[in-house]
Structure formats: C-alpha cells, structure tokens
C-alpha cells in the first residue's frame, strides 16, 4: 500500500516536471489524466456577457448618465431577465 501512495504522490510531480505540454502527454500519466478528464470543463461562451454589455449600452444612454450604480444594476437585471417574467405570465394564463 505504501508503494501505491508513493506512485500517486509522485505522478503529479513527474507531470509538472515533464517538458512536453501537448495533450498526448496525459497518456503517460493515467492518474493525472483521470483528474483532468473529471475536472476539465469547457470554456463558457462569451455570448451572455456580450448580451449584458449590449443591454447595458441600451440602458446607460446620455439621457440616463446620472443613474447611480444600484439603479443601473437593477435596470440591467430586470431587462436581462425579462424573459423569465414573460414565461411566468404565460404559464398562468387560463
């Protein structure tokens, strides 16, 4: 059992010290590969953030440049989540 513990603790060190950085290097380190596959997540899309910036640009116009941060954030959240309210209204129609 001590041998297994040593190999588990040594493999990450060997991976870090390995000079190869291509994805195929994971094949030489099965424990690191297992953690990589379990914990590696896809990069999220920037579309939701771009959508928020677009909505923010529609709210913060020259006529509304005096909005405080709190009111701007409230308007942004209300406008960005407007579809949730519309869906809720549709579900209650008889």
Give structural notes.
With 94 residues, the chain is mostly helical. It has 2 domains: 2-39, no CATH class; 47-92, no CATH class. It is built from 5 helices and no strands. The protein has helices spanning 2-17, 30-39, 47-59, 69-80, 82-92. Helix 3 (47-59) crosses helix 4 (69-80). The longest helix is centred in the first third of the chain and has 16 residues, at 2-17. It is elongated and about 60 Å long. The termini are far apart.
Low-confidence segments, given as residue ranges, are: none
This entry's quaternary arrangement is single chain
Q: Compute the average pLDDT.
A: 83
Percentage of residues assigned to helices: 55-70%
What would a concise description of this structure say?
The protein is mostly helical. The protein is built from five helices and no strands.
Layout of secondary structure:
Layout: H1 2-17, H2 30-39, H3 47-59, H4 69-80, H5 82-92
Describe this protein with a few key phrases.
single chain; 94 residues; mainly alpha; 2 domains
């Amino acid at each position: 059992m001590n041998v297994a513990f040593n190999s588990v603790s040594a493999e990450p060190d060997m991976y870090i010290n390995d000079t190869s950085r291509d994805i195929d290097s994971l094949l030489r380190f099965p424990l690191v590969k297992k953690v990589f596959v379990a914990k590696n997540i896809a990069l999220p899309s920037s579309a939701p953030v771009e959508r928020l910036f677009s909505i923010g640009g529609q709210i913060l116009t020259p006529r509304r440049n005096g909005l405080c941060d709190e009111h701007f954030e409230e308007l942004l959240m209300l406008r960005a989540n407007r579809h949730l309210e519309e869906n809720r209204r549709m579900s209650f129609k008889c």
